[in-house]
Design a protein that fits this description.
Distance between the termini of chain A: 15 Å
Largest interface: A-B, 30 and 30 residues
Largest sheet of chain A: 7 strands, parallel
Structural class of chain A: alpha/beta
Number of strands of chain A: 14
Oligomer: homodimer
Low-confidence stretches of chain A: none
CATH architecture of chain A: 3-Layer(aba) Sandwich
CATH class of chain A: Alpha Beta
Chain lengths: 309, 309
């Protein structure tokens, strides 16, 4: 029994924490989003890979949903004193991850290898693969022009209108080693409750990954990150709307319908269940809001159970 | 009245703090050593430039003699947890300086420009020029082979025998913009009480700088960093011996004799004064041990006075 999970950041981190409590972490492979990756102060930041790695290593700042618990921000303060941009919060301990990654990438190592080294050193027990070692970057078109995702989300606080979203570089990208195999050989594939456009979208945009999802004999289940017509967290609603999708579990199902078997949707959205069936997607209705550890595990158990049925 | 000072790290920082109290800092140009520069975690570190800049900005950790006062080492601890070498202590605030420098150098800016930006941002009021924007690195030959200066000094704690010292890259190096002019146009040039081999040596190894010292009409005075047959701090003794020089004020005078007018030596070394005259160097005997701020200023005043006489 092996489960492969497609993951963004905050929502995925919570779900994966539950999943690796419900089943042994060694049975889980995470395929992580790199579309949010960015250069800050010359350092290569992989926000989603880090959030997932920190969560699975038990050091995530759960209040913030990113960064290392109890981190300090003294380097950031010194950067501000030097007149450098500090809209992207990098903690002192967190910096070590970015320094190590940047040094190794500059030495020619792949992002996969560095990601593996970091998760092992930090003690995360499930395998974490970036979707790709190639350059893929989410770009958001706003009335101010094209922005990187972190510029849109962190610097501009996702307040700007969204006119379009692209995955720069995706056409030439290749799945990282192990990604296609992890989908092909899994007993089940879970798409975490992550932003469909900017967390799962950049993964699916890598040629070969959507094909692997279509081809796999594994059941594929997604958990809707949209509950009651709005995202549980983050700017998914605005981004889905920009892509012409309904901001609902139905929109999620539409986006994934080519390869999706089951969609887990929240009890308050159960009225949408019949429409899912029309898309060829079997609805699984349960409580999806993970407000504490118990609920994280309960959701994971419900998903695993649905896969078994 | 403008004074140009050739400077290493710790000893120079103390003297320059005294000098910029004795005379207005705007009248001082520092030419700093870059032979100790090194890459740590992929960051460009300029230990001597930083020590001088921090001292003149009033933020140097005076107990350690390097780094930022009251700094924390959380990134360093996280680096250790990631399995990275941590023999070179980089504080969290200090990191900002190295991040900024590295980012700008990678963008193609010169070390001079970055050094100027950093000293301005930190509020150091005298001009600080790296001796060169070219690559010059002090290499120390030990029974373990060639080591970079920081490897020898910090990692190996200067415990290894020294067989030779070279300045890698110096032959092709050029003085940084303003360096030759600062020597040519100064009213006086002061060689700080710094290690003659690995702090002042790499500056003198840059073609054009020793020539400028010979050509300048300014008086050139050095303060001996060797007192009572041993360096006040650091490994200068071992390094001078490796270069076949007596470990004394006399050895310092020999090394600088081509262009040195005055040598300030400690009262306990006054017996060496007649021998200096034989080298064509006028001795100035005073208390040179800077154990507190008052003595830093007193030494600077004595030097300025000797220059005036």
């Amino acid at each position: 029994m092996h489960i492969t999970a497609l993951a963004g950041g905050t929502g995925a981190a919570k779900f994966l924490r539950g999943l690796t409590t419900a089943i042994p972490p060694e049975q889980v492979t995470v395929i992580g989003n790199t579309g949010d990756d960015t250069l800050i102060w010359g350092l290569h930041i992989s926000p989603d890979l880090d959030t997932v790695t920190y969560a699975l290593a038990g050091i995530l700042d759960e209040t913030k949903g990113w960064g290392v618990r109890g981190d300090s921000f003294r380097c950031l303060a010194a950067m501000a004193a030097l007149g450098r941009d500090t809209w992207f919060n990098l903690g002192d301990r967190d910096l070590a991850t970015h320094l190590l990654r940047t040094e190794r990438l500059r030495a020619g190592e792949s992002l996969s290898k560095v990601t593996e080294a970091i998760r092992r050193a930090l003690g995360a027990r499930c395998r974490i693969l970036p979707a790709t070692d190639s350059f893929v970057r989410t770009r958001v078109l706003t009335p101010q022009g094209w922005l990187g995702f972190q510029e849109f989300f962190v610097r501009e606080k996702a307040l700007l209108d969204v006119l379009d979203v692209i995955y720069d570089g995706a056409d030439e990208a290749r799945p990282a080693p192990g990604v296609v195999e992890a989908i092909a050989e899994a007993r089940a594939v879970i798409v975490c409750p992550s932003n469909p456009i900017t967390s799962i979208g950049p993964i699916l945009a890598v040629p070969g990954i959507a094909e692997a999802l279509t081809a796999t004999r594994a059941k594929v289940v997604a958990i809707s990150p949209i509950v009651g017509g709005a995202p549980v967290s983050g700017p998914a609603g605005k981004l889905m709307a920009a892509k012409g999708l309904p901001v609902s579990a139905l929109g999620v199902a539409q986006l994934y319908s080519a390869w999706l078997d089951l969609l887990v949707l929240d009890t308050r959205d159960q009225a949408l269940a019949p429409e899912l069936l029309g898309l060829g997607v079997r609805p699984v209705v349960t409580d999806t809001i993970m407000t504490d550890r118990r609920r994280e595990v309960a959701l994971a158990r419900a998903v695993v159970e649905a896969l078994g049925s």
